[in-house]
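## retry 2 of 3
previous attempt timed out at serialization; input unchanged, resubmitting
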Amino acid sequence: MINSVKTRTPILAFILFVFAVGYTFAANKVVVIPMAADAPPASQWANVSSSGNILDQSGGITIDTQYVDSQAFYYLDFGNGVSESGISATMSYGSKGFINTRRCGTDGGCASSSNYNTVFVRTFDIDGASAKRGFYVVVHP
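## retry succeeded, writing output
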Protein backbone atom coordinates (compact mmCIF):
# COMPACT_ATOMS: atom_id res chain seq x y z
CA MET A 1 0.00 0.00 0.00
CA ILE A 2 2.84 2.42 0.78
CA ASN A 3 4.37 2.01 -2.69
CA SER A 4 1.07 2.83 -4.42
CA VAL A 5 0.75 6.05 -2.40
CA LYS A 6 4.31 7.09 -3.37
CA THR A 7 3.53 6.38 -7.04
CA ARG A 8 0.29 8.36 -7.04
CA THR A 9 1.63 11.44 -5.27
CA PRO A 10 3.79 12.71 -8.19
CA ILE A 11 0.97 12.00 -10.65
CA LEU A 12 -1.55 13.91 -8.54
CA ALA A 13 0.89 16.79 -8.13
CA PHE A 14 1.39 16.93 -11.91
CA ILE A 15 -2.36 16.93 -12.55
CA LEU A 16 -2.92 19.73 -10.02
CA PHE A 17 -0.10 21.73 -11.63
CA VAL A 18 -1.50 21.25 -15.11
CA PHE A 19 -4.97 22.41 -14.08
CA ALA A 20 -3.55 25.35 -12.11
CA VAL A 21 -1.72 26.78 -15.13
CA GLY A 22 -4.69 26.60 -17.47
CA TYR A 23 -4.45 23.27 -19.26
CA THR A 24 -6.99 20.50 -19.44
CA PHE A 25 -7.18 17.05 -20.98
CA ALA A 26 -9.84 16.34 -23.58
CA ALA A 27 -9.93 13.14 -25.64
CA ASN A 28 -6.26 12.42 -24.83
CA LYS A 29 -5.16 15.89 -25.99
CA VAL A 30 -3.82 18.80 -24.00
CA VAL A 31 -5.87 21.94 -24.63
CA VAL A 32 -4.73 25.41 -23.57
CA ILE A 33 -7.52 27.48 -22.02
CA PRO A 34 -7.02 31.18 -22.84
CA MET A 35 -7.40 33.79 -20.10
CA ALA A 36 -10.74 35.54 -19.95
CA ALA A 37 -10.89 38.97 -21.57
CA ASP A 38 -12.09 40.43 -18.28
CA ALA A 39 -9.19 39.00 -16.24
CA PRO A 40 -7.97 41.41 -13.54
CA PRO A 41 -5.00 43.61 -14.46
CA ALA A 42 -1.56 42.75 -13.19
CA SER A 43 0.08 44.59 -10.32
CA GLN A 44 2.01 47.75 -11.19
CA TRP A 45 5.30 48.58 -9.51
CA ALA A 46 8.07 51.16 -9.49
CA ASN A 47 11.60 51.38 -8.10
CA VAL A 48 12.24 55.02 -7.17
CA SER A 49 15.58 56.61 -6.25
CA SER A 50 15.98 59.00 -3.33
CA SER A 51 16.24 61.85 -5.84
CA GLY A 52 12.78 61.00 -7.17
CA ASN A 53 13.71 59.29 -10.43
CA ILE A 54 11.97 56.10 -11.51
CA LEU A 55 14.81 53.61 -11.94
CA ASP A 56 12.63 50.74 -13.14
CA GLN A 57 8.91 50.06 -13.42
CA SER A 58 6.20 47.83 -14.80
CA GLY A 59 5.13 50.55 -17.28
CA GLY A 60 2.90 53.61 -17.57
CA ILE A 61 3.94 55.22 -14.26
CA THR A 62 5.03 58.85 -13.96
CA ILE A 63 6.35 60.70 -10.92
CA ASP A 64 6.17 64.23 -9.57
CA THR A 65 8.64 64.81 -6.75
CA GLN A 66 8.26 67.90 -4.59
CA TYR A 67 10.92 69.10 -2.17
CA VAL A 68 10.23 71.30 0.84
CA ASP A 69 13.40 72.01 2.80
CA SER A 70 14.98 68.56 3.33
CA GLN A 71 11.65 66.74 2.91
CA ALA A 72 10.71 64.81 -0.22
CA PHE A 73 7.14 64.17 -1.29
CA TYR A 74 6.76 61.62 -4.07
CA TYR A 75 3.54 61.51 -6.13
CA LEU A 76 3.33 58.50 -8.46
CA ASP A 77 0.64 58.50 -11.15
CA PHE A 78 -0.16 54.90 -12.11
CA GLY A 79 -2.28 55.85 -15.12
CA ASN A 80 -5.46 54.25 -13.77
CA GLY A 81 -7.56 54.43 -10.62
CA VAL A 82 -5.92 53.17 -7.43
CA SER A 83 -8.72 54.09 -5.01
CA GLU A 84 -9.80 50.44 -4.63
CA SER A 85 -6.31 48.94 -4.88
CA GLY A 86 -3.94 47.64 -2.24
CA ILE A 87 -0.62 49.44 -1.89
CA SER A 88 2.67 47.95 -0.69
CA ALA A 89 5.87 49.92 -0.24
CA THR A 90 9.30 49.20 1.15
CA MET A 91 12.61 50.98 1.40
CA SER A 92 15.10 50.08 -1.32
CA TYR A 93 18.27 48.15 -0.55
CA GLY A 94 20.62 50.29 1.50
CA SER A 95 17.94 52.77 2.57
CA LYS A 96 17.23 52.78 6.28
CA GLY A 97 14.10 54.28 7.74
CA PHE A 98 10.34 54.22 7.38
CA ILE A 99 7.86 54.71 4.58
CA ASN A 100 4.30 56.04 4.42
CA THR A 101 1.87 55.74 1.50
CA ARG A 102 -1.55 57.17 0.79
CA ARG A 103 -4.02 57.03 -2.09
CA CYS A 104 -4.77 60.47 -3.49
CA GLY A 105 -8.28 61.55 -4.42
CA THR A 106 -9.83 59.64 -1.50
CA ASP A 107 -10.90 60.75 1.96
CA GLY A 108 -7.83 62.06 3.73
CA GLY A 109 -6.05 62.06 0.36
CA CYS A 110 -3.09 64.13 -0.71
CA ALA A 111 -2.63 67.84 -0.21
CA SER A 112 -1.13 68.41 -3.69
CA SER A 113 -3.17 65.95 -5.74
CA SER A 114 -6.82 64.97 -5.98
CA ASN A 115 -6.08 62.56 -8.83
CA TYR A 116 -7.50 59.06 -8.21
CA ASN A 117 -4.59 57.58 -10.21
CA THR A 118 -1.97 58.86 -7.78
CA VAL A 119 -0.19 57.33 -4.78
CA PHE A 120 1.61 59.64 -2.34
CA VAL A 121 4.83 58.31 -0.77
CA ARG A 122 6.86 59.92 1.98
CA THR A 123 10.06 58.49 3.46
CA PHE A 124 11.69 58.99 6.85
CA ASP A 125 15.07 58.27 8.41
CA ILE A 126 15.49 55.82 11.31
CA ASP A 127 14.79 58.61 13.82
CA GLY A 128 11.44 59.40 12.18
CA ALA A 129 12.46 62.66 10.51
CA SER A 130 11.38 63.20 6.90
CA ALA A 131 14.25 62.22 4.59
CA LYS A 132 14.98 61.47 0.95
CA ARG A 133 15.13 57.67 0.56
CA GLY A 134 14.84 55.22 -2.31
CA PHE A 135 11.87 52.83 -2.28
CA TYR A 136 9.79 50.28 -4.12
CA VAL A 137 6.01 50.67 -4.41
CA VAL A 138 3.43 48.18 -5.74
CA VAL A 139 -0.24 48.73 -6.50
CA HIS A 140 -2.23 45.52 -6.38
CA PRO A 141 -5.51 45.32 -8.34
